[in-house]
Amino acid sequence: MILQTNIYEFLDYAIIGILGLMNFLVFILLIVVGVSNFKKALGPDCKKGFSRFFVAFLVFLMFSTFMDFAYSLTYKIFYIQTVENEFYSVGYFNYIVNTIWGITYGLGVLNKLIAFLLLFSAMEIKLFNKKSKWKFGILTVILLGSIFIMEIVKITLRFTIGGIGSAITTLTVGVLSSLDYIILAIAIRYLLKRTGKENESLKVYTKPIAIGVLFLFNFNSIIQILQYIRGFIDYFFNINSYYDYDELLYWINIGLFFLTSLLFIIGIILLAVGAIKTMSVPLTFSKKKGVKGAPRQAVNKKQNTCPSCNTPLPPGAEFCTNCGNHL
């Protein structure tokens, strides 16, 4: 029994540690991508538009992950003071925990939605080469807006009605929000694939970003749906005094948490790699017929004569040696 208690105690601190690690990882990536923005030398026609958006995305994501870490740490501190040291009453403990949850969860959701709005907007503006014709941007606003509204309803119901109504709302909002992210991720991967077909060089960044999206949004959202279902089952069993599967559900929850954390870490690292790679590949596109959507640098390598004066030019020339026309 003592050994089992020690294992649970260890896992509690392990969860707090992993949440802190995730927050620290986002901070490190923020530094790395930020420094790259200042120091990385750009090639011809290369820009830092997407990477700058990505820095802003990491700032808000860092605040979001910090809120998760802060709540878990605060909960553990008050739990020790209430249950082990009997410093606080159970009623006061529940009041404090619910209040802290409302603040940290609300701020966490807000920062996360802003972060994803920045990320998806950057993809629409900088990466997709107008492939979606702003349809993805509209889809982003609709789905993220619906998530924001659902989260407000969820927080409100937890503090007003509570009980089974709040549990059902949490399950519904969690599942629908996760499905929204899956839809957005599918759209992103489709548009990145189409963009990558423009030129092989673009796959330098489209590939890691696409894989990162797969881990961070597709796989992660599926696991989170399972977490919400597990949470509802656990609540339903508890209110009906059915405790036979408590330990099983606990270990399922631990496993799902570690899996989502791993998926988050892999996904965010791949996205950061892709963001840095965008600074080494031209993100500006030619409007010339026959090469529409191809990077301007790639077009120049095939340009053998000046379109202005027809002077023969060597492959890779960036301007005409006769009239000075920029290619």
Give a written overview of the molecule.
The protein has 327 residues and is mostly helical. Helix content is 76%, strand content 0%. Helix 1 packs antiparallel against helix 2, helix 4 runs antiparallel to helix 5 and helix 6 packs antiparallel against helix 7. The longest helix has 38 residues. The radius of gyration is 25 Å and the shape is elongated. Pfam families: Zn_Ribbon_1 (PF13240). This is Zinc ribbon domain-containing protein.
The structural class is mainly alpha
Mean pLDDT: 84
- What is the H/E string? HHHHHHHH
Number of helices: 8
Please tell me the total number of domains: 2
Pfam family, one: Zn_Ribbon_1
Protein name: Zinc ribbon domain-containing protein
Keywords: Membrane, Transmembrane, Transmembrane helix
InterPro entries: Zinc_ribbon_dom
Keywords:
Zinc_ribbon_dom, Zinc ribbon domain-containing protein, mainly alpha, 327 residues, membrane, transmembrane, 2 domains, 76% helix
Could you outline the blueprint of secondary structure elements for this entry?
Elements: H1 2-39, H2 49-84, H3 90-127, H4 135-160, H5 163-196, H6 203-239, H7 246-277, H8 296-302
Helix pairs in contact: 1-2, 1-7, 2-3, 3-4, 4-5, 5-6, 6-7
In short:
The protein has 327 residues and is mainly α. The protein has eight helices and no strands. It is 76% helix and 0% strand.
